[in-house]
Amino acid sequence: MRSLLCAAGAAGMVLCAAVAPAAADEPDGFKIGDTRITESSGLAASRVHPGIYWTHNDSDDGPYVYAVDAESGRTVATLTLRGIGAPRDVEAVSIGPDGNIYVGDIGDNRGGTWDHVWIYRFPEPKRLRDATVTAAQFTVTYADGPRDAEALMVHPKTGRVYIASKKQDGGGALYEGPPRLSASGTNTFRRVSPIDLWVTDGAFSPDGTRLALRSYFGGRMYRWQDGRPKDLGSVSVPFQGQGESVTFAPDGRTLMYGSEGPNSEVEPVGLTGDQLPDSARDAAPGDGGNGDAGKGDTGKGGGSGQPGDSGAAGASGDPGAQPGFGKGAVLLLGIAALVVALRKLVRRSK
């Protein structure tokens, strides 16, 4: 019996040693504990304050943006925007290379009937405290008519703003804004690529080489190439009550997914293979990187992100889109080895 316990303990330590390093590389998830934040609809990792994520409520909240500390889940700053009209349906937040926070008042609960929407922009504060900040307001229209959209992304290198619409009139699409937004006129966004996904949020990787888009039930990853998205396949999305937001963690190796609801969870999902941004692949060639970042486009993957789509959590047709695959394989091998060792010892003791 003693040898049996020793073998079990040794196998357990080997198993833990094999799994722990991979888990340690992934940021922890957190719970948004602020009782005012019941409809967290957008998420953006701070560029100035490590461990801080910016979020906001959906409609009917007011001109507020919240800074949430990932370690405690507490709101450490509430920003009140002035210089803008009354927000109508705020759906997204992103941070540009100019150090500004961009807030997308781009939703349309009337099914795409509003003739214009708005983007608000203000500098990310260097000090975290409750404050009133002056924001610029930009009027936005679409070249092909009103859209219902929930995803706004600012490219971290060019500063260009993109909006992904939900599916309607034949499908969703990615829209590109002008090179620079103008506060004095109307900013027309033009369709640059179809998106086969019911998009609820999106984010560029910190190095600008990847674009992640999510829906309620799935997501897709794209390589950003010559100002256009190239599909890399489905990406895992955790099961959430109402999955509304996504952002890259600052190192680019993990997606952080958020949802609406009181005490909502923000959950991490690690990336592997081609879905890793180029800078992350170059920094860690042993983790799915092969030194050929920018090559090996597959252009294939799971489904559209609708109910039953293979892009849902843990189910993807693309092995590179399953961040938990490596850990799961190690876990299964460890369990199998433990079972075999126990059986041998039991036979010897008889």
Automatic annotation (TrEMBL):
UniProt KW Membrane keyword: yes
Record's signal peptide: 1-22
Residue ranges, compositional bias (Low complexity): 309-321
Span list, region Disordered: 233-321
Lineage: superkingdom: Bacteria
Keyword Transmembrane helix appears in the UniProt entry: yes
Matches recorded under InterPro entries: WD40/YVTN_repeat-like_dom_sf
Sorted UniProt keywords: Membrane, Signal, Transmembrane, Transmembrane helix
Biased composition (Gly residues): 299-308
Sequence intervals crossing the membrane: 328-346
Full protein name: Esterase-like activity of phytase family protein
